[in-house]
């Protein structure tokens, strides 16, 4: 990779060039085009940027290609139009009342496409590859929230991708394993993400990006995906940095063996096939997509990675404990109110302090005093919200940052804690994914189709968004987050530094004293006992989370 000084010179010159030509009409008459390995693509110009949408990065996973690793896309003659997003991957619908609801878009199994936002003139620019969230069941790169324009205006070539979801992306089955050259199945969604990264390495230079300076960025299931990409030997060397927003490190099933109270992934796939009435693999591949989605819901199929010994060699905690993860800089964090929008994760609030303390004593035994110090009975609802947040997101995020720092890599931790007016009015202060309008720099912008989202709209919100997208872009460019007019963000290090994003960024130390040690002790005890340390959820439960 280029040294930091050279990168900074390039980044500064790119921004200067953008300022010079951004308002020019010299390029307006001709649509932007790029030549990739498969052929030539024509995009559009939007606000001084080159934008390409719906570019295939893999062959359509349909028919006999359903539940197979992604194959290279076909080539084409002439110029392919890349003006519109590709179809969303097949998925169930969010409840209409969900804060995350978006009106349905066209869906298809032929959905393995990506989108590119690029400055008008650039060469060797930093690259971000965005992986959307949605519990590995929902979501799309076409969501208006994921507009890469603000990153491109800061000299980044921004790429967003689709990947197979739900049953289509994560089903394991003995017959699928038998036909595989490696004897494994599942993890197709993760393999899609790896295929997209390989496409970026081959082709991003055509858009002015540097294939040696790629940052993987994801939120929620996208953050979980980024964590698995850090852990997977198949993704080694495909990216240089990672931005991880609200990840977890839950235990996942083994391909063939029951473990941690979970059936094997192949057993789960067999049960789903029986629920569908599919007698063999040919019948599964002939099944109507909507019937597969319905069967997954009936069978409570959980979309999740599978430990197959190939793509995912072990549990995340073990891979990171052994130091086998990718040694790259990481920026990671979570939100103070994560589970305010995921109430199905939170236990019922006991009626009084005595009942609360008795229940904690029953569940946590000798760890109950430590639990009650962190999550006291005097604020029972807030304590349960915080305890659930920490068990799911906080512990895993700080563990990731700690272990990257231990591996000698720059690691940066944040806590998003901004309670802007619209979120406060809905009781959703710093809710799960609430940082997205800020991280994408789009706070204050109206969005079609996101009518349930409490949108930040004040000047204070817009100022914070400018700073956050600035930190993110600088990290992608140089490996060090910084922003104009904002405080320096120290690396985590021995001082356990972090950045708190309230109404404005404030650097601090020891984010949530005692939280990590307590949650780590619980995880280690449960792992030693062969118990799950994060309860897996069915798609139906995931839908209730989004209500």
Summarize the helices and strands and which ones pair or pack:
Layout: H1 4-21, E1 33-36, E2 39-42, E3 44-46, E4 49-56, E5 79-81, E6 113-119, E7 125-131, H2 149-152, E8 157-161, H3 166-170, H4 174-179, H5 188-203, E9 209-219, H6 221-231, E10 241-245, H7 265-276, H8 281-286, H9 289-298, H10 316-321, E11 330-335, H11 353-364, H12 368-374, H13 380-406, E12 411-416, H14 421-425, H15 436-439, H16 459-478, E13 497-501, E14 505-509, H17 515-528, H18 539-545
Parallel strand pairs: 2-5, 7-8, 7-9, 9-10, 10-11, 11-12, 12-13
Antiparallel strand pairs: 1-2, 3-4, 4-6, 6-8, 13-14
Total count of strands: 14
CATH architecture call: 3-Layer(aba) Sandwich
Radius of gyration: 23 Å
Number of helices: 18
Task: State mean pLDDT (0 to 100 scale).
Answer: 93
Question: How are the strands of the biggest sheet laid out side by side?
Answer: 3-4-6-8-7-9-10-11-12-13-14
**Fraction of residues in helices?**
25-40%
Largest sheet: 11 strands, mixed
**Oligomer type:** single chain
Strand content: 5-15%
* C-alpha geometry: globular
Low-confidence stretches: 1-6, 16-28, 535-547
Query: What class do helices, strands and sheet pairing give?
Result: alpha/beta
CATH superfamily: Alpha/Beta hydrolase fold, catalytic domain
Supply the number of structural domains. Answer: 1
Text of the CATH class: Alpha Beta
End-to-end Cα distance, whole Å, is: 45 Å
Question: Per CATH, what is the topology?
Answer: Rossmann fold
């Amino acid at each position: 990779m280029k040294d930091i000084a050279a990168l900074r010179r390039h980044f500064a010159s790119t921004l200067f060039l953008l300022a010079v030509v951004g308002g020019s009409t010299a390029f307006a008459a001709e649509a932007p085009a790029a030549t990739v390995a498969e052929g030539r693509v024509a995009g559009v110009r939007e606000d001084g940027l080159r934008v390409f949408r719906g570019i295939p990065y893999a062959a359509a996973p349909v028919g006999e290609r359903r539940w197979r690793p992604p194959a290279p896309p076909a080539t084409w003659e002439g110029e392919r139009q890349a003006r519109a997003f590709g179809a969303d991957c097949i998925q169930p619908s969010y409840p209409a009342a969900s804060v995350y609801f978006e009106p349905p878009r066209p869906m298809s199994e032929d959905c393995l496409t990506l989108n590119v936002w690029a400055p008008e003139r650039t060469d060797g620019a930093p690259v971000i590859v965005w992986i959307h969230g949605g519990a590995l069941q929902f979501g799309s790169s076409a969501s208006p929230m994921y507009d890469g324009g603000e990153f491109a205006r800061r000299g980044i070539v921004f790429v967003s991708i689709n990947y197979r979801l739900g049953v289509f992306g994560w089903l394991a089955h003995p017959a699928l394993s038998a036909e595989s050259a490696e004897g494994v199945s599942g993890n197709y969604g993760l393999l899609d993400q790896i295929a997209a990264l390989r496409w970026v390495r081959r082709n991003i230079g055509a858009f002015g990006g540097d294939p040696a300076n790629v940052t993987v960025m994801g939120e929620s299931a996208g953050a979980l995906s980024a964590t698995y990409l850090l852990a997977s030997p198949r993704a080694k060397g495909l990216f240089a940095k990672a931005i991880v927003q609200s990840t977890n490190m839950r235990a996942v099933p083994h391909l063939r063996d029951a473990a941690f109270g979970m059936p094997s992934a192949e057993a789960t796939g067999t049960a789903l096939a029986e629920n569908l009435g599919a007698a063999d693999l040919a019948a599964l591949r002939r099944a109507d997509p909507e019937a597969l989605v319905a069967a997954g819901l009936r069978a409570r199929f959980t979309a999740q990675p599978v430990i197959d010994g190939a793509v995912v060699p072990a549990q995340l905690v073990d891979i990171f404990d052994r130091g086998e993860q990718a040694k790259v800089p990481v920026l990671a964090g979570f939100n103070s109110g994560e589970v305010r929008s995921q109430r199905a994760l939170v236990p019922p609030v006991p009626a009084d302090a005595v009942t609360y303390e008795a229940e904690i004593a029953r569940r946590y035994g000798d760890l109950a005093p430590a639990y009650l110090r962190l999550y006291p009975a005097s604020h029972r609802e807030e304590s349960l919200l915080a305890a659930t947040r920490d068990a799911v997101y906080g512990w895993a995020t700080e563990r990731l940052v700690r272990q990257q720092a231990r591996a000698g890599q720059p690691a940066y931790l944040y806590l998003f804690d901004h309670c802007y007016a619209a979120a406060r009015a809905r009781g959703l202060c710093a809710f799960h994914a609430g940082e997205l309008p800020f991280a994408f720099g789009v706070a204050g912008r109206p969005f079609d189709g996101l009518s349930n989202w409490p949108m930040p709209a004040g000047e204070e919100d817009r100022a914070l968004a400018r700073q956050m997208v600035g930190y993110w872009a600088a990290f992608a460019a140089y490996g060090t987050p910084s922003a104009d007019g904002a405080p320096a963000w120290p690396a985590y290090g021995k001082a356990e530094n972090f950045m708190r994003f309230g109404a404005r960024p404030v650097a601090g130390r020891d984010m949530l004293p005692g939280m990590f040690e307590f949650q780590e002790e619980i995880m280690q005890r449960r792992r030693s006992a062969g118990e799950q340390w994060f309860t897996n959820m069915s798609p139906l439960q995931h839908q209730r989370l989004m209500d």
